[in-house]
Amino acid sequence: MNFDTKRLPSERDDVAPDGSDVRVLLGLDRGGMAHFELGPGRTSGAVAHRTVEEIWYVLSGRGEMWRKQGVREETVAMEPGVCLSIPLGTHFQFRSVGSVALAAIGVTMPPWPGPDEAYTVDGRCQPEQPGSEWRPPRVSWIAARPTPHTRAPAFHSRRA
What we know:
With 160 residues, the protein is an all-beta fold. Helix content is 0%, strand content 45%. It has one domain: Jelly Rolls, CATH 2.60.120.
């Protein structure tokens, strides 16, 4: 086994099934790491994974991540320093708010197997360019006060 070292590529390597730009970093037998970026005001497509789980750490920008497993559903704020998990089979969608791209590092376990890994699901809204609106939630939501960094309110779920 080799020791590997890599700098963040200046250009994207690929576009993820959710529509975000991907810069592939390093991987080992049991996991891989990539940099994901969603442009200012954009909303990703809603997807789920067949065989992988992910952990994300937000580097820059601000946004929201919607996640759903069965009847449990929540939306959390994404900002630098936030770490979140996407367990196997979780439906998820995210959006960037503000004038700066939302960027995160993601660890995928096991390593990303290929283009058929992700599949499209119904999400909070249609993927769009700047100005997209989240659909009304399917569960009870408590709207938090908007922060100075976002125009849209952050949402937090009530657990059933």
